[in-house]
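Co-fold these.
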Amino acid sequence: MAPLIEEFQYGLEAPICLTWELTYACNLSCVHCLSSSGRRDPRELSTEECKALIDEFERMQVFYVNIGGGEPTVRSDFWELVDYATEHHVGVKFSTNGVRITPEAAARLAGSDYVDVQISLDGATESVNDAVRGAGSYRTAMRAMENLAAAAFAGFKLSVVVTRQNVGQLDAFEEIAERFGAQLRLTRLRPSGRGADVWDELHPTADQQRVLYDWLLDHGERVLTGDSFFHLAGYGQAPPGLNLCGAGRVVCLVDPIGDVYACPFAIHDAFRAGNVRGDGGFTTVWRESELFADLRRPQTGGACSACSAYDSCRGGCMAAKFFTGLPLDGPDPECVRGHGETALAAVTPGTAPRSMPDHSHGRAASGRVPVTIGRRPPERACDESPLAGFATAVR
Amino acid sequence: MSTEAAPDLRPAREFGLDEAWRLDERVSLRPERFGALLYHFGTRKLSFLTDPRLTAAVLALAEQPSARAACAAAGISAAELPRYRRALAALAASGTIRPEERADGTTD
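Predicted complex below.
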């Protein structure tokens, strides 16, 4: 039989896991938010619609859902939905900035095998974190982790988006995770949502990517990656995990209004497969959408076919290419062989597609918005912050 | 999404083919074209069965009085049994399947 990775390319009866963004509402305005969250969308799925969707996940045997947003815990029915999912054998991992992880919430979470928590933190120091996630967000996350640790919730996740400013803090992140009995999870910064506005300044440099790759190989299975660094496989040895773009094959995204996208980093009409409110619901979208059928066909390497690394990296991340204006059958913008930089140089500035729904605080309801880099600069300039120069440059 | 490969196959000397086994209640098994996906909610580990007949045998454990009977129900011949016994032993070692408890609470 074919290796599993070959099997996975052709899709599964149901996703292994899927990301479900419960709301676009968020108390923060992170500069790199991949879903351009901020304000609630009035078309958000109701509690009853959410429960019907969980029933469907149970019938399809979706093992667990990664709940995110927005900040999912600000939905008034959040805990009700978590309980409903776990009662129906759908596990829940949810990502939060920690705002609602009180001692009471932590105690309740610690009691369930079926719930896992990811606390987002993008700097191991307050200055690095708050420059990206907003003033006070570091303390909020630390308080949430203290509460989880105090409730003896072992093995929750400390989730970090690796940036140019925090890539030097990987050991410090691991120390923070160990201090709270958590596991470190590193994921890749994508130029999705508001991430497109800051990607040029925040994505790791070529040298930093090499450092990250070596660090990941050294730390192996101890660190989770959401399988998001498969483009680094081009260096030689594949990082641990499933090194395959799972978009529409083993994962997908359901957004707060029920739209189904190929992956959480591809909120754009070009990657929208359907809506769970349509006839046949989510099951039909997963099994019958033309977009997903396309994604499950053998892909061609295009400009990458001749590259000796193609079998390892498989051309990298579709969303990263799309939102930087690169062709999908060419190199990843962060191609470790440097082909991405060459390709990016040929893209006319301002022509890359943008994620479509925009729920940012203080922006138009939808549609294309002008690029406004760094709308929310750090509260105070801090000379010690690696981001100090960045903050000045984008003000 | 994080993934975990299936455990290494170990020698099967301890695995009781004539005992009743059950899928752990914290494990969800989903048949797929290549076999099955397994997810353990306690360890949060994903694993794979890459053989449809092994999948059938694991599913048959619930109705059969022994692992041997489950293998027979899945169409596994006596000659093939040692190979499947090793696979079942690996599933037992990873906590995916467990001996069925008797009415008196013992397992043997």
